[in-house]
Amino acid sequence: MMPVEEMKSLLKRRGREVEAYLATCLDGRDMPPRLKESMLYSLQAGGKRLRPTLCLSCAALCGLESHKALPFASAIEMIHTYSLIHDDLPAMDDDDLRRGKPSNHKAFDEATAILAGDGLLTDAFLIMCRAPLASDVLLRAVAELALAAGASGMVGGQEWDMIYTGRSQISLEELRGMHAMKTGALLRASCVCGGLLAGADQTALRALGDFGSALGVAFQIADDILDVVADTATLGKPAGSDAAQGKNTYPSLLGIEKSRELARAQAEAAQAALADFSGREADFLRASSRLFSIPSRDG
d(Cα 230, Cα 237) in Å, to the nearest integer? Predict the structure, then answer.
């Protein structure tokens, strides 16, 4: 297993590559200056850049030079960023902070924030088509990503989240289904698209999909737990907002300790999905799942 510090170092390095690409992705375009400022405000707000890094790593795992996947991976981050802008809007989660800064609609205004999200989502498909790969390869990956980001994936999951918010009880199956769409679909697609860009076979693609799905569950549980146990400064967004908004979460259904156990089990499932892969990229991906394997209070 790759040491955690080495994994974090590689995660940061790949994140910097993505950020360097994102910093120039809107250059040379004719658009209203305030709209561009709003788009870049959220796009350059930081974060682990986990989704594009997963795409780059899965592409490299399957034999593609990672720089060839960089435009596509960066476009995934643009889609993720648009979703955060829209999630923070008063009509959605009504959050005033994101990554330690005022949310986009607070820094600008609601109309500009909506348009910034629209611009990032739409422009993402332009950016991903810049990847220097065969058109049929790109088309398969674009279709996979669009499915994960749309009404059958992330957008649909957000709608279920709005429906379930304030409901006194939902089942664990309903919670998992909602998060598999809202959070898990884009994480899974990040992995599968990396494999598609590299021309991976169906066996490898299934393994990457299983890895991404399990990682998505572990990620969501970790996020839910942190909302309970961490403070606003650590989170970069209001702590305790899930409970304040009446959201159903893993801790609210299962309690903290059982949620921790489930996060560990899903992290282990993610690692097991890559059992047939070897090498540095496989080690990195397996180690990355440990980010979301939440320890119990006694260690």
Answer: 10
- For 189, half-sphere exposure in the C-beta direction (CA atoms, 13 angstrom radius) is 28
Q: Which domains does the chain have, with CATH numbers?
A: 4-292 (1.10.600.10)
∠ CA 16-58-249, rounded to 5°: 80
Residues in the chain: 299
Q: Label residue 234 by pLDDT band (50, 70, 90).
A: low
Residue 298 has pLDDT above 50, yes or no: no
List pLDDT tens digits, range 126-171. Answer: 999 999 999 999 999 999 999 999 999 999 999 999 999 888 789 9
Interatomic CA distance for residues 253 and 241, integer angstroms: 16
237: left (phi over 0), alpha (psi -120 to 50) or beta: beta
25 CB-side CA count, 13 A: 32
